[in-house]
Known about the structure:
The protein has three helices and six strands, in the order αββαββββα. By secondary structure, it is an alpha+beta fold. Strand 5 and strand 6 form a beta hairpin.
Amino acid sequence: MxxxxxxxxxxVSNSVENTPDELRQYPVIHSQPVHWGEMDxxxxxxxxxxxxxxxxxxxxxxxxxxxxxxxxxxVLAQSSCKYLRPVIYPDTLLLGVRCQRLGTTSIVMxxxxxxxxxxxxxxxxxxxxVRLDSDGKTKLPWTSEERERLVAMEAEVDHTPET
Length: 163
């Protein structure tokens, strides 16, 4: 199980005073600097990089819940991203991540990408994550304890996932 100190080092809690209003209902906020090498031929952040950033934010979310200790197997079943504004170097994105819907064996994650340089949301995304057994072959339900931790963390920011 991941300790809270490790989770805090990976992602920033939403209790930070300078959290943008647009991210206040996201329990985990991942800070992601934009790197020069991630720009495309049009001099803006390559679309594929948004998915990589979402992966890092998702891991931060699971770590905050103590669910990313190496024993859990999850797979990405679906993902999408809506690009609202181009992002250019230098910038730091704050990715708000939360559970939109908690299923029996899946979670629908919701992301909001906030540009600190533009002071605006520049993209939104979602992803379906499915939990599997240790062999990676059979869907495995979330335990009651895991569900309670997730709902409690979301409630801290006045957000309630669909079930």
